[in-house]
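Page 47, continued from p. 46.
Same chain as before, 211 aa.
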Amino acid sequence: MTKKEKAQIIIEKLETLYPRPPIPLKHSDSFTLLVSVALSAQTTDMMVNRVTPELFKKAPNPKRMASLKVEEILAIIRPCGLAPGKAKNIRALSQLLLEKHNGEVPDNFKDLEALPGVGHKTASVVMAQAFGVPAFPVDTHIHRLAYRWGLSNGKSVEQTEKDLKHLFPKEKWNDLHLQIIYFGREHCPARSHQREGCPLCSIVGRKTNFR
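Result:
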């Protein structure tokens, strides 16, 4: 089976399982999405959704967020991993949005990735989910499954992103990003996974060197 054939099977199965995949991080606009995605590194979406209501009640926009002290932000987001660094970055990016972007979240990769604490993956999520621009953010679930399905060699998330963009139609990228995440959580865990019982690994998965 070729990679293109596998990709078509994956599209059909995921569209059946998740026809309208919801965005897992609760947000109200591009700014609250940006902050939520920045918070999600090294922690779960569930934990982010637990702390952001209080944070966004105090600071729903860059101006209010920049007016908070780093310690105030940290006190709210402390349950999230790497919280001290994230608190500094959230305040700093809010200040930069005010200084350079009139308080608006930029809708391009260059300016997004120039913000403190915003890497390519975070920028990709914001571009896809806030602005509807085709992107293929690769998280740990997507990186793992792309290898398991034989779509990429697993050497780096950068290579995985490149391979997936080559295999899947551009108009499918934004939905596929979410669909694969949900599939990984529900059907294809990192540990104790049985290839034979998986709705996709049993069809398109590697038969050797499975991880």
